[in-house]
Amino acid sequence: HVQLVESGGGSVQAGGSLRLSCVASGAYRNRNYYMGWFRQVPGKGREGVAGIYSGDPNIRYGDFVKGRFTISRDNAKSTVYLQMDNLKPEDTAMYYCAVARPGAAWSLDTINYWGQGTQVTVS
């Protein structure tokens, strides 16, 4: 069973930055998988923010990111980071760390495990 623990959310003014972290415990051993972030606002479904593969460095960003966010990964620490710069009020959401099935693409329907979420508020 994989457990995901997020940190780094908070409140920031527009144009500011935040860095999210997610540590995975019990993750798949000796298998490659996507790990990353989705976000959700009340009344809407979850949308992919960014995912990064543990094998070759494939990275997927949501279209709205437009160069503002950077995802990185430390496989030795089973940790993924999301550096968010030039934040906008429309980035306000609950951000969820997620792990996909081994070998699967980065997509909402391939996610096996979710974190509890960390709130990001941009004013």
Question: What does this entry look like structurally?
Answer:
The protein is mainly beta. Helices cover 0% and strands 50% of the residues. The protein contains no helices and eleven strands. It has strands spanning 3-7, 10-12, 18-25, 34-40, 47-53, 59-61, 69-74, 79-84, 93-100, 111-114, 118-122. Strands 2, 4, 5, 6, 9, 10 and 11 form a seven-stranded mixed β-sheet that branches. A four-stranded antiparallel β-sheet has the order 1-3-8-7, with no helix packed on it. A hairpin with a 5-residue loop joins β5 and β6 (59-61). The protein starts with a strand and ends with a strand. The mean pLDDT is 94.
What's this model, at a glance?
The protein has 123 residues and is mostly beta strands. It has strands spanning 3-7, 10-12, 18-25, 34-40, 47-53, 59-61, 69-74, 79-84, 93-100, 111-114, 118-122. It has no helices and eleven strands.
How would you summarize the topology of this molecule?
Layout lengths: L2 E5 L2 E3 L5 E8 L8 E7 L6 E7 L5 E3 L7 E6 L4 E6 L8 E8 L10 E4 L3 E5 L1
Parallel strand pairs: 2-11
Antiparallel strand pairs: 1-3, 3-8, 4-5, 4-9, 5-6, 7-8, 9-10, 9-11
